[in-house]
Write a structure and sequence with these properties.
Number of domains: 1
Strand content: 5-15%
Structural class: alpha+beta
CATH class: Mainly Alpha
Strand order of the largest sheet: 1-2
Helix content: 40-55%
Number of strands: 2
Order of helices and strands: HHHHEE
Shape: flat
Amino acid sequence: MRSSPEMTVCEHGEPKGEQACPLCRYEKKLMTPNVYVSSSHPQTSQDAVKKARISSGSRRKMILDLIKRHREIGLCDHEIIELTGLSPNTARPTRISLMKDGFVVNSGRTRRTATGNNAIVWIADTFVSPTA
């Protein structure tokens, strides 16, 4: 009898390889943000993108987890900034990348900021109500 090689499985118990588990594909997409720069840009820009790719995955996960914890209530950008302590120039682009990749959506609602302006309430795509 021929012995078969031991199959390796992911942390979710699914086979590894080209037919990766859906949860692994989801996590890979979450941790690999769309951060691009043309090769015609200066070396300093290319170096900055490489550095951003390293840390932006964990920021994306942190912000997505925070938005998910707030479920249907959602969060506005100013609330994300306040809760995470990130600068606006870090928090907003991170939330935008999550939106572009389909993890976060506009809830269709707004809340007032401290200055009285309306701000979009963002929710995780998990909490979008299906339309009938």
